[in-house]
Amino acid sequence: MASTIWLCAACQPTDPGLGKLALDPAARWIDERLVIESGIEFQPSPAIREALDHGVDLQLVVELRVARRHGPIARELRLIARPFRIRYLPLLEHWQLEDAEGVQTFPRFWMLREALAEPRVFETGLDRSAAEERPLQVQVRARIDRDALPAPMHLPTLFSVQWHLGDRWHAWHFGPS
């Protein structure tokens, strides 16, 4: 039964007019450390906007995966998840964006979206020598953490195409082939 649910959820079509959650990442070396730099493009679907307007906190997650390559197969070494929590404060009519660096408050939703779109640096934990010694793969994506939603919303969001925002994995390869 559970596999049927996952199969059906994976087959949901996505319509770009229903919202967007995407990264435009670039891998960079900063002081011999490999980092991924990207902003988060977020355009909520009508269902997500309605949930936010009704006080439901939304958690976006940027996931960074480092794996060791063995030919066409990669074995995950570490997964780094950086959450971004969005909430609406109806009494103040303000929006909040909370991440590891703190909480920012905005009087308008478009301002919060612009703050999300600002480039951020995501640490991979790799230095140049480790990346040159062995074949490695670094991947990054953005997604909505539906498990962070209130429990009554879990099943409906699994089947609603309006909640299936998320980015594909962006990948880079380092080290010997």
What does this structure look like?
The protein starts with a helix and ends with a strand. It is elongated, with a radius of gyration of 18 Å. Helices cover 21% and strands 46% of the residues. The protein has helices spanning 2-10, 46-53, 109-117, 128-133, 154-159; strands at 20-23, 26-30, 33-38, 40-43, 58-70, 73-89, 94-99, 102-106, 120-127, 136-144, 170-174. A hairpin with a 4-residue loop joins strand 6 and strand 7. The chain has a six-stranded antiparallel beta sheet. Strands 2-3-9 form a three-stranded antiparallel beta sheet. Strands 1-4 form a two-stranded antiparallel ribbon. Mean pLDDT is 86; it is low at 1-14. By secondary structure, it is an alpha+beta fold.
Helix-and-strand structural type: alpha+beta
Strand fraction: over 45%
Task: Count all strands and give the number.
Answer: 11
What is the averaged pLDDT score? 86
- What would the principal axes of the Cα set say about the shape? elongated
Report a brief summary of the structure.
The protein is built from five helices and eleven strands, in the order αββββαββββαβαβαβ.
Task: List the main descriptive attributes of the protein structure presented here.
11 strands; about 45% strand; single chain; alpha+beta; about 180 residues; three-stranded antiparallel β-sheet; elongated; six-stranded antiparallel β-sheet; 5 helices
Topology at a glance:
Elements: H1 2-10, E1 20-23, E2 26-30, E3 33-38, E4 40-43, H2 46-53, E5 58-70, E6 73-89, E7 94-99, E8 102-106, H3 109-117, E9 120-127, H4 128-133, E10 136-144, H5 154-159, E11 170-174
Antiparallel strand pairs: 1-4, 2-3, 3-9, 5-6, 5-10, 6-7, 7-8, 10-11
